[in-house]
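ARCHIVE CARD
Drawer: 12
Card no.: 0347
Subject: one protein chain, sequence and derived structure
Cross-reference: see card 0346
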Amino acid sequence: MAVRGLERVASQEAKRAASRGIGLSSFYDLALRNLRARLTRTLLTLLGIVMGVAVILAIDITNATTFASIRNLFDETAGRANIVIEPKTSGRGLDPALATDVRRVSGVILVAPSVRVRSYLPSQLGKVIGNLSLGGGDGVARGGTTVLGVDPDLDPQVRIYQVKTGRLLAEGDGRKAVVGAALAEKYDITLGKDVELLAPDGFVSFEVVGVIESEGVGRVNDGRVVIAPLDEVQDVFARGRDVDELGIVAAPEIVNDPDRLDVLKAAISERVGRDVEVQYPAARGKLISQMLASYQVGLGFFSAVAIFVGAFLIYNTFSMTVLERTREIGVLRALGTTRWQIIGLILVEAVLLAAVGSSMGILVGITMARGLITAMSGLLATRLETVTVPLDGVLIAVLVGAGVTLASAFVPALSAGRISPLEAIRVRGRQSQPGLVSRYAWLIGLELIGVALLAIYVIPFRKEVALSIGMASVFVLLLGATLLIPSAVAIFDPLIRPLMQAFYGGEGLLGSSNVQRSRGRTALTVAALMVGVAMVIGLGQLSNSFRADILAWVNTAIGGDLYVRAAVPMREELAARIAAAEGVAAVTPVTYMQARLTEPTDENGDPQDLVFTAVDPATYLRIANFKFASEQGDPTARVAELAEGDALFVSTVLAEKYNLKRGDVVSLETARGVRPFRVAAVIVDFSGQGFAVTGSRRDLARYFGENKANTFLLQLTPGADREAVRQELSERFGKRYNVQIESSDEFRQRVLRLMNQSFALLNVLVAIAMIVAALGVINTLLMNILERIREIGMLRSLGMTRRQVSKMVLAEAGTMGLIGGAFGLVCGMVLARVFVLGTNMSAGYSIEYAFTPEPVIGGVIIAIVVAQLAALYPAWRAGRVNIVEAIQHE
């Protein structure tokens, strides 16, 4: 047989190498010859290493690309501006006289004012963008069209324009505009045509004189940008003489010296006062980076799962390799090879695998990263174009891949070094005896599980290290469960045998019993399945718990049957007209705006950008409610306190981050300067990813100078036909006020789509872990078949057909799948609670664990299906065993 011939060649090579003394080149030759002799196993192990390295690198590239793209996006849209000045409060403009003051600061050579307005083309009005996405901010796509009002002479000296067709704006252009290439292509806008934009008094037209490439300012809002003369935009959108931004270009000698640029920034801040924000362009992406931080911790955790599962595959491979080569190693030892040389020989094979696997993993990781970056782009609703491959990320991925490979091969290598020459030369080779650790593995496993659970649930760690210790404890828990599997196999096998017999007949009974013949090997394969199933169940339960909490928040805090939204803020008087419509029982206005928390600050002393939601408590409670966190007292008293003014409800995210509780005082930037507000209550609020506060409309008008509404929530009368009411409101107010009316069901579906998109990347990583587990099943079954070739040959000689042999192998895989599914179910239920706890800890949410059966059922089914699919090739190989060669096999 081919395998036997290869073994003879390897043995002969071993004798020759031992007789002339083993050098480094001989080690390399022997190692390479062994890897080639077991090519299928080598390729499977190599693929496991490749997947582990690739996932780690792909996640690192995705994270680096995301942050670099956000920074570069704000830098690029700012162009040559080294410093920007913006209002601290949303909706509050800058006095244009500031530009003159800033120009007088030494080192400033240019100041360009601009206005930024969010508008809509007629064809965009049906698209409603809520406050739940990660996207947002000046550069990141937010839906609709961004209108920039600029000085035609100054702005091209600050921002980067690359003309695709036509020309740029010129002095005296009037109602002329330049549009981004992405907007022009999507809506078929060409030179000479008018682009219609929604303004407070209806649609206005600008003649298109140029189209710019998607570079520099052309990347604003993902290319959905219209640039028009400053005075025209101010007039059309009722902005008065105020501006939204001053772009400052510093002298070249200052730009090239970071210290001098810091000095200039400080000087400008002193000149303009505390009521405005002076910052570097890239700093404006901070809020998005904060929102992504905890999400990317999750990506890193699930990438580690893949390499953890891969370690089982590598260990099994080298353990079997040592067992198969017992005679060869015995010959080497008899001819004078030392124990350490034998250990070195095995580790050289590991080094070769690690080198090739890591190299291939880098290439696969870069390719995989492109897919993950595309998914992240969808999550952020903007293109991530700055693909960054961090050198330290490549180094870490390679070191982890090589380290795990060598660590997994080290114990088999030590085992090889302990082989006795006399025992090894016997025909049957040696039978490994369970050592002290093997006999008490179940006890060690229980202790590890106990330590992990104590670390997760009992021991109070500092907040700074609690999350890291929690993630490490998950792997300790999984390792402990792995050590329990060998003992559990003996318990599960008799229970599963009748099922396998019922499904596969007598062959199923025989195949099921085979799992006990190599418990250690079976345990690691089952463990790989267990980890995959546990992740499927844990992530599924987290996703469903998250979904339940978000929907509860939508139903409670937003409530209502219909939502009326407009592209531009609506006057409150419109609420009375809507309330007079037939079928409408109640209407309440809601305003969402950007605000800034100045006290308390974060660990770096920086303020926190957030969403300020203004409601009218009296009418709001007729339609919706607040979902209060625990220990907030009487809800009626809390709402009354909010209505009195100078009070806020803060989200659980902010309360967790800043350790806020009812009765504390926080400060917000307002149109009237920094104002203190009492914390009237802590509530669940997912607006702006949880970076949100809720105030009264009384405070909105008093401190922010705003009384218009973004949204009206509508409650219908009992028995009213929702679609009929919606149709009537659309006919009466749709075109006249340019409003869109969305049902509560449509809003819920939009929220769920966004949430599912957030979990998509994590699901991909869990799928990769299941793929690595499947490789482990294939590897183990192939090893088992090779170990039992003689037995299979005898069974075939006694009349067992190829089909029956295949069924026997499938039954063995099915048993592994069921045991892996059972262990994965238990671990998954524990991990589900751990994941919910970790998410609350890292993101500041107050998600309540909610059990749902779908992930549990799905996880167990996946384990069985993966095991059966993975067994198809080994089953085919087993059925093709040659009877004569198999009986002669040693």
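Annotation on reverse: The CA atoms of residues 180 and 229 lie 15 Å apart. Residues 1-7, 17-21, 128-141, 427-437 have pLDDT under 50 and may be disordered.
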